[in-house]
Amino acid sequence: MLFAPPLTRRPRAVRRALAAAAGAAVVLGASACSPAGSIESANVDSWKATALPSASGIVLADAGKILNRDPIAKDATVPAGSYTLTMSCDGGGKEFFDVSLDGNRLAEAGAACNGSRETARIKVPAAGRLTISASSVDAPLIFAYQLVPAN
Fold first, then answer.
1. How far, in Å, CA of 48 to CA of 51, rounded?
2. Of 1, 21, 82, 150, whose Cβ has the fewest other Cβ atoms within 10 Å?
3. Pairing of strands 81-101, 141-149
4. DSSP H or E run through 59
5. Residue 69: per-residue pLDDT
6. pLDDT tens for residues 76-108?
7. Three-state secondary structure along 82-126?
8. Is-contact 129 61, C-beta < 8 A?
9. DSSP secondary-structure letter at 68?
10. Nearest by Cα to 70 from 45, 96, 88
11. How far is the C-alpha of 53 from the C-alpha of 47, rounded, in Å?
């Protein structure tokens, strides 16, 4: 039979020190999930330079801040073909990208707003006006995307 040592009460100073250490661990853990600095004061161009890979042949790109949950859309005339949409965002939550051609939805893609890159293949069946709308209910956040012909 196993015997457990008798439970002893720790001195008050030890209990306080353990409680303070546990509280500090919670605060540090929560702050590790938050982006460094404020989204409102972030420099979009500097962030984009590190968030997306350099690419040639970009047919549509945008970067900015979503501060109030309103979608931000950009469009361009593109030829038919296969494309790669590379997206990134930061600030927490998730961002959604709606891709449409001449008003008809082609695809929907999303990116977790933790600074990682996501990619999606987009098939454009005919030449036309391609619109990419970026939106999120997790404002504020910073985002960037680029659309390039697929290899």
1. 5
2. 1
3. antiparallel
4. none
5. 87
6. 999 999 999 999 999 989 999 999 999 999 999
7. EEEEEEEEEEEEEEEEEEEECCEEEEEEEEEEEEEEEEEEEEECC
8. no
9. S
10. 96
11. 12
Longest dimension (CA), the chain: 80
Q: Cis link prior to 140 (omega < 30° from 0)?
A: yes
Binned at pLDDT 50, 70 and 90, residue 151 comes out as confident
- Residue type for position 137: V
Length of the chain: 151
Cβ-based neighbour number of residue 51 at 10 Å: 21
How deeply is 28 buried, as exposed, middle or buried, from its count of CB atoms within 10 A (0-12, 13-18, 19+)? Answer: exposed
Q: Using the structure block, give the residue that is written with the tokens 């939550």.
A: 93
What is the DSSP secondary structure assignment for residue 7, as one 8-state letter? P
How far is 35 from 120, CA to CA, in rounded Å? 24
